[in-house]
Amino acid sequence: MKRRRMWIYLAVAAAISLAVVLLFLATTINDWSRDFTTNTAAMDSPLESSQSPAALAAMVRSAVDELPRWSLVEEDTTDQASRLHFTRTTALFRFVDDIRVTITPTATGSQLTARSQSRVGKGDLGQNPRNLQELLTALDRQQPTP
Known about the structure:
The chain has 146 residues and is of the alpha+beta class. It has a single domain, classed as 2-Layer Sandwich (Alpha-D-Glucose-1,6-Bisphosphate, Chain A, domain 4). It has four helices and six strands; from the N terminus they run ααββαββββα. Strands 1, 2, 3, 4, 5 and 6 form a six-stranded antiparallel beta sheet that branches. Pfam families: DUF1499 (PF07386).
């Protein structure tokens, strides 16, 4: 009787664990058709800034410095563009995503584009779009408030 009760408790615990995982997936995946088949994401439209490319690149570096599990891997700055390569490591499984930011001069300042790509897997479960959103949110926090 005790053994049967133990198996019942284990089955209930397993069912609850499965329900928690499924609930987590249901709340974090935004686009089911995309997130299981794509391991890359790009910004929908470039970010326009009135700042110079050098100033915007400094702002991006400063914003990323405050993000957990993000690090600057490489920076290439020329007169034509600044290219920054960051990595972000996931907390649980330690997967690494590459985030590449390109800043180019425009007539009114500069333009920022970014792309995030997973190194492992066929789908990213929406992590790459979340990486880009995290970067843009951090940049918004860097903007001076009037």
